[in-house]
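queue> pop job 88
queue> type: inverse folding (structure -> sequence)
queue> payload:
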């Protein structure tokens, strides 16, 4: 998939088999993950800080393996469905940690806050930092093409998305509106969780129906090395990487999550802060890696498309799974309860999502919009009290209302996109 104002950087020819350096990178990731496997099998837990480093390092290493395998898998799965599946696989580390917190909260009420904290932190990090990052990278890369005369000067100021992206934006817009029900209810009921899971299934079904874009894009780097292998070897390599990475992540999720909470006390740092921001930095790694690589290759549309799909996954599959995990873990409230702090966090996260939708609803991402989004994201680390979070939420909504008014002609077509045939979406 490519955007209308960027051209994929052409990859040099890659060998038909992976070279020693490529296998060496995989070996480095395996070596970094190995101590966590040894700790897990041997039941070792020296102290929270060591556990945090060992299991956190394993999660990051496995995230690299996931990113390479998921991107290379596009050789066999193309189009909008590939982006949706890639985004789903990329957030596996985050899901493993977050669902553990939700499951644990079923028997330990002190963990209830951490399930919501990890989700809201990763969600805001993805939009407030990830979106601006790939836009800025894409616009900087576009300068090379402008100098060569293959792009208009506007390409260094505005990133344009394909019309087919309206489907993902439409789903995200609807989910952003529904998300405000969570702070209003003060919990995530079990029935609401199943409704969000149904929305995710509908999203995947619509993505599978979408027509393929450019199926001939070349992959470079590690993904290119894997994709260039003969079909049988490639598929086996991708499958093994998926299995190894998933195994490491699932084995490391519980001790990593517990170490985050316990190391907060040991370091004199608020455990809530570590869970909300340090954990997402590790678990969001594959999403940022994949998107940044797309952007560096001049594939800005695919880069932002991957992160938009990840946002849809978070607001549907992840949030929908939290109350289910809570009940399976022993919770008897019929869903995941939220305290006053969590209500504020969900309100802030939902309002930021609405602003993000407003910015991209016209399928154009201006560099100043990226800078403003990044600045508002940074403000929350300065304004940390209850009043500050509510004021920032209102600022998000007011700015979003202004942007929606400017792009009012795009609002209804975007909200209708999830219910229209793909050809109608692309024409609109």
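queue> result:
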């Amino acid at each position: 998939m490519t955007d209308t104002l960027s051209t994929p950087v052409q990859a040099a020819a890659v060998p038909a088999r992976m070279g020693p350096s490529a296998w060496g990178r995989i070996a480095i990731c395996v070596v970094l993950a190995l101590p966590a496997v040894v700790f897990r099998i041997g039941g070792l837990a020296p102290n929270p800080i060591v556990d945090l480093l060992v299991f956190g390092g394993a999660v990051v290493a496995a995230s690299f393996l996931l990113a390479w395998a998921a991107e290379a898998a596009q050789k066999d799965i193309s189009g909008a469905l590939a982006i949706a599946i890639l985004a789903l696989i990329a957030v596996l580390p985050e899901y493993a940690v977050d669902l553990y917190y939700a499951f644990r909260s079923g028997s330990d009420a002190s963990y209830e806050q951490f399930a919501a904290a990890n989700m809201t932190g990763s969600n805001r990090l993805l939009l407030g930092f990830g979106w601006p990052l790939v836009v800025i990278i894409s616009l900087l890369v576009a300068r090379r093409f402008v100098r060569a005369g293959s792009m208009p000067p506007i390409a260094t100021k505005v990133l344009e998305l394909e019309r087919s992206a309206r489907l993902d934006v439409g789903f995200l817009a609807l989910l952003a509106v529904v998300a405000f029900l969570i702070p209003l209810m003060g919990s995530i009921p079990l029935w609401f969780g199943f409704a969000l899971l149904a929305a995710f299934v509908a999203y995947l079904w619509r993505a599978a129906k979408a027509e393929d874009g450019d199926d001939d894009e070349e992959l470079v780097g590690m993904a290119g090395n894997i994709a260039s292998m003969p079909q049988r070897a490639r598929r086996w390599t991708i499958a093994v990487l998926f299995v190894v990475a998933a195994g490491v992540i699932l084995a490391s999720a519980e001790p990593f999550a517990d170490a985050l909470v316990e190391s907060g006390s040991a370091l004199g740092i608020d455990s809530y802060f570590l869970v909300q921001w340090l954990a997402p930095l590790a678990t969001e790694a594959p999403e940022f890696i994949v998107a940044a690589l797309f952007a560096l290759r001049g594939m800005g549309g695919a880069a932002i498309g991957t992160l938009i799909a990840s946002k849809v996954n978070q607001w549907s599959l992840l949030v929908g799974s939290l109350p289910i995990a809570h009940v399976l873990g022993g919770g008897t409230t019929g869903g995941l309860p939220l305290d006053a702090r969590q209500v504020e966090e969900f309100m802030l996260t939902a309002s930021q999502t609405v602003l993000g939708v407003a910015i991209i609803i016209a399928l154009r991402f201006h560099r100043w919009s990226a800078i403003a989004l990044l600045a508002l994201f940074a403000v929350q680390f300065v304004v940390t009290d209850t009043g500050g979070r509510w004021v920032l939420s209102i600022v998000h909504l007011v700015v979003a209302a202004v942007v929606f008014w400017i792009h009012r002609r795009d609002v209804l077509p975007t909200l209708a996109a999830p219910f229209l045939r793909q050809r109608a979406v692309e024409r609109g």
